[in-house]
Amino acid sequence: MKRTVILACDLYDPKTPELCQEWESEETIQNMEKTIQTLGYDVAVLSNPSEIASVLSGIPVTERTHWMVWNLVEGYQSPNREAYIPALCEYLAVPHTGSSAAVQTLTLDKYKTKLFLKSFGIPTADFWLVDDPKQKPIENFPLFVKPNGEGSSLGIGEKNLIQTAADWDEVVPALVDKYNKVIVESYLSGRELTIGVLGNKGNYEATIPAFVEYPGSVYSDLLKSKESFVESLDFIVPEGLSKSLQTYAIQIADLLGSSGYLRIDFKLEKNFPYLLEVNATPGFSSIYSTLPLLWENGGKTYSELLNHCLDLGFSEYQHHHRYNYAKDRNL
């Protein structure tokens, strides 16, 4: 029986960029659809929540092993938003790409992720969670503040670099009012790096890392957008630093128990790398997403990346115990 891939996605709408900055463009989805079709799969694109739930529950239980849901749903505002698809698929015994709902929910919360990973020795800058707009300044300047549960640089601009108590009073209360929780970190003044991890538990492989280059001192939401993507990657990373980042990246994947893929960001201070954040639902655009660029720098094609991620999803479905309840009840 021919396998079918469902691209479960939110589609970027330029009319509401602040809400859907992390969502994929129609061009990206169309390119993914065509590429996956060339791999021998049937492909369906679904972007409506009710339709996705209806289609998945309507697949005959005996055929669910032949389907794969590619999780591209980002949602907005909810702390569980990146876990919608993994939880639904696990409950219905339908394979999906990427990590479990537990990993997705944890990594969307920057504070909890850093707290967890720091306890195992992953280096981080000092950090605090602020959820009260009346919170007095943490006088450990300079500081950097950003929303605790957003990606794609949402809510980040040049003013997020806090140098004084007056800066705090101008920026932090407004961010807390808008995003509910913000994470405050000791400012890291060095260059930013990113790295990808592919694989399932016990079999991870890290990409070569790259410096992330962008104009100015802050990677803001004005830079990271679908309309004006101006970042570039510099793959000339010193060998010692590269190996250190690969070691940290695989350790992070193992500690989290991630599946399929991760993209992890670090920043330097005095040439030492500190963890910034972990992204368990990275973009897959062949045009503007970082993970495919990291993969292709290793000499492999975009098509090979998508095929590998699908294979990892099917392998996870066959071997991971988290599907057992659904398999027993549904199959």
From TrEMBL:
Regions annotated as coiled coil: none
Top-rank taxon: Bacteria
Keywords, in A-Z order: ATP-binding, Ligase, Nucleotide-binding
GO molecular function (one): metal ion binding
SUPFAM superfamilies: Glutathione synthetase ATP-binding domain-like
Keyword Ligase included in the entry's annotation: yes
Sequence ranges assigned to domain ATP-grasp in this UniProt record: 114-311
Record keyword Lipoprotein present: no
Classification via InterPro entries: ATP-grasp, ATP_grasp_subdomain_1, Dala_Dala_lig_C
PANTHER family from the UniProt entry: D-ALANINE--D-ALANINE LIGASE (PTHR23132), D-ALANINE--D-ALANINE LIGASE B (PTHR23132:SF23)
Similarity field: Belongs to the D-alanine--D-alanine ligase family.
UniProt protein name: D-alanine--D-alanine ligase
Organism per entry: Leptospira kanakyensis
